[in-house]
């Protein structure tokens, strides 16, 4: 019985997440996640501190993308992310000048289909009460870098927004 309840909760978690991006108006897409089994090796390799070094998408000179309903996608360049693989928690912070300051805990996972599930958690709120999140695709994963790819709708056409992550190498002895 306990296993059935746990499986049901995990399934609900994945089905409740959706990716949201916007250009001039908010475009919401909701995709069921077919595979709820976690990819532990991918999660472990993302463990640690990362920074986004670039955000690219076709038409970036003309189109603004509001990433994660927080700020313009260009504000995420230089943002820092911490991923803890044993409990799928972490944090993210925007610190770029001329952009809104933002910092938040996150809950994340990667399933066997390479889908990165992200929940941005407000301070004092339990992640299990959050029913919305973001689904991105993990690509080009190495020890030192990886990409998260979001699919957005721009004028009826599907475009990909690529967030390039680079590992922050600690200089501590």
TrEMBL record:
Keywords: Signal
Signal peptide: 1-21
Database matches in Pfam families: Lipocalin_4 (PF13648)
Residue ranges constituting the Lipocalin-like domain according to the UniProt record: 46-125
Name under which the protein is recorded: Lipocalin-like domain-containing protein
Organism: Flavobacterium alvei
Lineage of source species: Bacteria, Pseudomonadati, Bacteroidota, Flavobacteriia, Flavobacteriales
């Amino acid at each position: 019985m306990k296993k059935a309840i746990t499986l049901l909760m995990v399934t609900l978690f994945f089905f409740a997440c959706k990716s949201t991006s916007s250009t001039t108006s908010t475009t919401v897409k909701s995709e069921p996640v077919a595979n709820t089994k976690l990819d532990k090796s991918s999660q472990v390799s993302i463990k640690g501190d990362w920074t986004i070094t670039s955000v690219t998408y076709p038409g970036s000179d003309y189109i603004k993308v509001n990433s994660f309903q927080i700020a313009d996608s260009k504000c995420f360049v230089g943002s820092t992310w911490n991923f803890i693989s044993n409990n799928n928690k972490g944090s993210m912070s925007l610190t770029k000048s001329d952009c809104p300051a933002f910092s938040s805990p996150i809950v994340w996972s990667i399933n066997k289909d390479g889908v990165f599930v992200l929940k941005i958690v407000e301070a004092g709120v339990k992640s299990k009460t959050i029913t919305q999140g973001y689904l991105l695709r993990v690509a080009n994963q190495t020890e030192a870098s990886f990409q998260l790819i979001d699919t957005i709708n721009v004028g009826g056409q599907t475009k990909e927004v690529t967030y390039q992550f680079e590992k922050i190498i600690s200089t501590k002895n």
